[in-house]
């Protein structure tokens, strides 16, 4: 280390093999980012303004909207500045912050999907005791546990990655700082950090997935036992939005972090889908399949129009 200068900033190289497409990518990033902000803010507005939506399911959906607002904000603004021809550098501290908040919000969303699966299990499998099981105290504990557990998870990963020395090169072959692209730049043995990161991400993902699978196995068994076809249809409709979001969330996570051989271009494309596209789809998934949210949004928007007109 005495013969090397520590890295004080990194160069974000953007999405590989997209030279000359900066304007197209800028419009793409901006459109989906604005769509994400608008859609999730509308869901939050509907949940906060309607007393009919003050239930555990919509409480967790509101938390999901908060995560979906902040999650793309970790990488999108910096990437759009880069596409506009601004500086592509990011400070050492900025890179560490990106990695921390990316894994903090990503892990929180993973935990939240698990909590939402349990909420659906309680609602469908124990409908008469639902309000007793999913009481205010339990919802608060689950939410706080989600935030605190995610913070611990992200802190461990960030400490492991950035306690290593970085003395060059400093080119991050990606559009934001993440473990697979930052760790190879360290000028020291990275085997421990690689192993712990793989186990940490893998264990969290696997445990959450197994808990979700357990909840939905019980849910499906309960739905099949229902005598009313209308009740079965309503239960499937309630769960379908959540299942769709889970598939969109877990697919990229498994592909990026648990694949044996990585491809920088393919990883970047999947990350774009995970960071930019999926958060913008969640509001559409939950509003298009949910009559209560659609009715509330319609009422709120009509009231706003009348207020502005008056």
Automatic annotation (TrEMBL):
SMART domains from the UniProt entry: 7TM_GPCR_Srsx
Topology with respect to the bilayer: Multi-pass membrane protein
Subcellular location: Cell membrane
Main location: membrane
Domain G-protein coupled receptors family 1 profile: 39-286
Pfam families: 7tm_4
Residue ranges of coiled coil: none
Source taxon at top rank: Eukaryota
Keywords, in A-Z order: Cell membrane, G-protein coupled receptor, Membrane, Olfaction, Receptor, Sensory transduction, Transducer, Transmembrane, Transmembrane helix
Transmembrane spans: 24-48, 55-74, 99-118, 138-162, 192-214, 235-258
UniProt keyword Transferase present: no
Described purpose of this protein according to its UniProt entry: Putative odorant or sperm cell receptor.
Protein name per Swiss-Prot or TrEMBL: Olfactory receptor 10D4
Species per Swiss-Prot/TrEMBL record: Equus przewalskii
């Amino acid at each position: 280390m005495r013969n090397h200068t520590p890295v004080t900033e990194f160069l974000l190289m953007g999405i590989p093999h997209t030279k000359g497409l900066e304007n197209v990518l800028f419009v793409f990033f901006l459109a989906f980012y604005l769509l994400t902000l608008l859609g999730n803010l509308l869901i939050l507005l509907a949940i906060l303004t309607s007393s009919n939506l003050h239930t555990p399911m919509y409480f967790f959906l509101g938390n999901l909207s908060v995560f979906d607002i902040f999650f793309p904000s970790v990488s999108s603004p910096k990437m759009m500045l880069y596409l506009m021809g601004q500086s592509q550098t990011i400070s050492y501290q900025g890179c560490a912050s990106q990695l921390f908040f990316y894994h903090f919000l990503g892990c929180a969303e993973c935990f939240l999907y698990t909590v939402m699966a349990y909420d659906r299990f309680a609602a469908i499998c124990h409908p008469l005791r639902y309000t007793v099981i999913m009481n205010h105290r339990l919802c608060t504990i689950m939410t706080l546990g989600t935030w605190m557990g995610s913070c611990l998870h992200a802190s461990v990963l960030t400490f492991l990655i950035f306690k290593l020395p970085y003395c060059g090169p400093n080119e991050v072959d990606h559009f934001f700082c993440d473990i697979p692209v930052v760790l190879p730049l360290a000028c020291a043995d990275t085997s421990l950090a690689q192993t712990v990161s793989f186990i940490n991400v893998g264990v969290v993902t696997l445990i959450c997935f197994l808990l979700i699978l357990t909840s939905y196995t019980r849910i499906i068994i309960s739905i099949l036992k229902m005598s009313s076809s209308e009740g079965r249809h309503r239960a499937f409709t309630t769960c379908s939005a959540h299942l769709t979001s889970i598939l969109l969330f877990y697919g990229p996570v498994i592909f990026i972090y648990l694949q044996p051989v990585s491809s920088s271009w393919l990883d970047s494309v999947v990350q774009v889908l995970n960071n930019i596209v999926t958060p913008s789809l969640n509001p559409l998934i939950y509003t298009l399949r949910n009559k209560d949210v659609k009715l509330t949004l319609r009422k709120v928007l009509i009231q706003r129009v009348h207020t502005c007109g008056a």
